[in-house]
Automatic annotation (TrEMBL):
Keywords: ATP-binding, Membrane, Nucleotide-binding, Transmembrane, Transmembrane helix
Residue ranges of every copy of the ABC transporter domain listed in the record: 355-554
SMART domains per record: AAA
Topology term for the membrane: Multi-pass membrane protein
Domain ABC transmembrane type-1 residues, every copy: 20-309
Transmembrane domains' residue ranges: 21-47, 53-70, 141-162, 168-186, 246-271
Xref: Pfam families: ABC_membrane (PF00664), ABC_tran (PF00005)
Keyword Nucleotide-binding: yes
Lineage of producing organism: Bacteria, Bacillati, Actinomycetota, Actinomycetes, Micrococcales
One cellular-component annotation, GO: plasma membrane
Protein known as: ABC transporter
Protein source organism: Janibacter indicus
Length: 554
């Protein structure tokens, strides 16, 4: 693994400042560490010789206090940098996935594998455990790396000035630590990659089982999968234990080597002090400086193992973001991704705000017959309504356009969409929280969206306004208010396509009329596809798709 991958700074620019601060703090910490060795040696010599202790005590106390402050500051900056990198990478991965049109999300590369994380389960693993594993790599490994680059060099330089024989011993042995660490690290990296692969296999197998659970239950094969998941879990456990054994063994080897090296320096200094050929201050300074040449390298070796998972995950994440399939790091002069734009407007795909459904067939797992057969739809800017009897696949069609489901045959092409389901998510929290689920918004934009849906007066009349809390599923709001709130959230969405699934269901006539007007205004600037039974929305429609009842009910 690389000591530091500079691609992080390119992909997550917000990390540049904390990483630079870490480097600066590490340099100052190195200087303070070396100064502490001199101050401690002076203090001990002053005590032995009965000299005035005021100066040595003040210097020693001040340096220890400075090191404590620098250590706390380094931990704080490192933790912030780690969280920033993990969050930034997760957002980049999700953004890269969401920007891809639905007809491109499951295409395969030359190896026959989906280019985005080589499968949905692997994408899920990267976006969760993978990005979280990168955090200790940044928060712990990078500060240790900075110390290893600064402190040993300063310690050896000072030893050359103070006592060149001790410096010669350190120079002759210190190179063994990075050599052994590199050899052990190569073995550990291979093992870590195997363990990361085992974790991916476990996630992928579990996801496959969950997808096929209805079929497995129908054929009485569900119990067998319990044993299979257990076997995959045991494989991951064995890989983890093997990595831990390597970590402990490598740490012990580096510790033994460093201890022997420091002991050689101490013995040499002790012999010269005994023979009177060395001053006490020089001898104590050499003994205190020698461990500082080894300790940062040992710390890097120890932190390497906690960061190895993050390094393996980081390689995969950056490879995804650098891939030609919607890479977030590649932009043209207009700030757009040329690959994504070509995918959006690829042959048969339509423009940025056009949805195309061509010859789509879909059958629900375990169903006796097809839910959708040969569906054709081209929806551009304006309002397209989808009608039909219950069970004819209207909701399924919206889920296919949103990319939630994959067609059995045919093709669905759509830009990023905003889907409003029959039971949209409204979580326990404030109205502001529920409006800004898709991303941060300015307060004036929130009020403008509420005004569009006719909720501004209601919210303004509440004691806490936008900070008024609601319960799960919008508890505390009426059905009409909940419907208008999720429409306001759709207005705030940057998606050019909005999918509405029975938004006027379960609301009173006045709320339904208001919602109809909002949908009409929304359709003036975006592509709106609405599943509805309401005649008012049908009358407003620019296009109408009537689905038929499937021949065999599922």
């Amino acid at each position: 693994m690389r000591p530091f991958d500079p691609r992080i700074l390119r992909v997550v620019p917000d990390t540049r400042r904390p990483v630079a601060a870490l480097a600066g703090i590490g340099i100052v910490q190195g200087i303070a560490t070396i100064a502490t060795a001199f101050a401690l040696a002076s203090l001990v010599v002053a005590v032995v010789r009965g000299s005035d202790l005021t100066g040595p005590v003040l210097w020693t106390g001040g340096l220890f206090a400075a090191r404590a402050v620098l250590g706390a500051l380094s931990e704080t900056v490192a933790a912030r940098a780690g969280a920033t990198v993990a969050t930034g990478l997760r957002e980049q991965l999700l953004a890269a996935w969401s920007r891809r049109p639905t007809d491109q999300r499951d295409v395969t590369d030359e190896a026959g594998e989906p280019p985005f994380a080589r499968g949905r389960s692997r994408a899920l693993t990267l976006a969760t455990q993978g990005t979280s594993a990168v955090e200790p790599y940044v928060a712990k490994y990078l500060p240790a790396l900075v110390s290893a680059a600064v402190v040993p060099a300063l310690a050896i330089a000072c030893l050359v000035i103070v006592d060149w024989p001790s410096a010669a011993i350190v120079v002759g042995t210190v190179w063994l630590l990075p050599l052994f660490a590199a050899l052990i690290g190569a073995t550990t990296q291979e093992d870590t990659e195997r363990r990361w692969g085992a974790l991916t296999d476990l996630s992928g197998h579990f996801l496959d089982v969950m997808r096929g659970l209805p079929t497995l239950v129908a054929y009485g094969r569900a119990e067998r999968q319990v044993d299979t998941i257990g076997e995959v879990s045991q494989r991951h456990r064995r890989a983890t234990m093997r990595t831990l054994r390597l970590a402990f063994m490598s740490a012990a080897a580096l510790e033994l080597l460093a201890t022997i090296s420091v002991a050689i320096v101490a013995v040499a200094v002790g012999l010269r002090l005994t023979h009177g050929s060395m001053d006490l201050l020089v001898g104590l300074t050499a003994i205190l400086l020698a461990p500082e040449a080894y300790w940062p390298i040992r710390r890097v070796g120890a932190e390497f193992h906690s960061a190895a998972d993050g390094a393996a995950a980081l390689d995969d994440i950056l490879a995804e973001l650098d891939s030609p399939h919607c890479p977030t790091a590649m932009r043209d002069e207009e700030g757009e991704d040329p690959h994504c734009r070509r995918a959006m407007r690829s042959e048969g795909g339509g423009a940025e705000d056009v949805v195309t459904v061509t010859g789509v067939d879909y059958t629900h797992p375990g169903a006796k017959g097809a839910t959708l057969t040969g569906v054709e739809l081209v929806a551009g800017p304006g309002l397209t309504v989808v009608t039909g009897p219950s069970g004819c696949g209207k909701t399924t069609l919206l889920e296919l356009v949103a990319g939630i489901r994959r067609p059995d045959s045919g093709r669905v092409s759509a830009p990023p969409v905003h889907l409003v389901t029959q039971r949209p998510f409204l979580g326990a929290g404030t109205l502001r929280d529920n409006l800004t689920i898709g991303g941060p918004q300015e307060s004036h934009d929130l009020w403008e969206a509420l005004r569009e849906v006719g909720l501004d007066g209601t919210v303004a009349g509440l004691p806490d306004g936008l900070d008024t809390r609601i319960g799960d599923d919008g508890f505390g709001l009426s059905a009409g208010q909940r419907a208008r709130l999720v429409l306001a959230r759709a207005l705030l969405s940057p998606a050019t396509v909005v999918l509405l699934d029975e938004v006027t269901a379960h609301v009173d006539a006045d709320s339904a009329a208001t919602i109809g007007e909002v949908v009409g205004r929304l359709a003036r600037t975006r592509t709106v596809i609405a599943v509805t039974h309401q005649s008012d929305l049908v009358a407003r429609a620019d296009a109408h798709l009537a689905l038929r009842q499937p021949e065999v009910a599922r």
